[in-house]
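Worked problem 6 (solution included).
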Amino acid sequence: MGSLVSPVLSQSQPTPSVENNLYVKALFACLDANAKAYSSQTNSRHDYYNVIVQQDEIITKNFPNQLGAYRIEYLDAQALVNRYKAKKAEFPIIIIRPIKNEGTKLVISFADYFFSYGKKSLNYGLEGGCNVVLSYDCSKQEYVIEKVDLWGI
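Solution. The predicted structure is:
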């Protein structure tokens, strides 16, 4: 029986640079919007320049740990549990959602949670988040950020 694998699909594709990764572009736009909107709050439990992002094997692969003033740690579920056990207190994390196609726009959503662990259960307390809307600019031949919307509960 012959192979059904297309030679085009089996060729390795070059990995896009970090600067061209839409998730990275959107993450830093979101971090920047959060820092500008909330970092002056004195009672905040957040450090908007040092954040934890829940690791995703596909989405966060090869993401930078720093860009500009922002430092990011990517932690999987076990590392989150270990951090909680060490701190003995809930802490803020960001979860990146898959890209949504809304007509001619792409939307990348980020959810802000407070993470804790108890009774062998991962606990996520939703706090708010950020939606980044991207559109394709034909003259630049790239996706550009059209708007960044913060939301809370």
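Discussion: The chain has three helices and eight strands.
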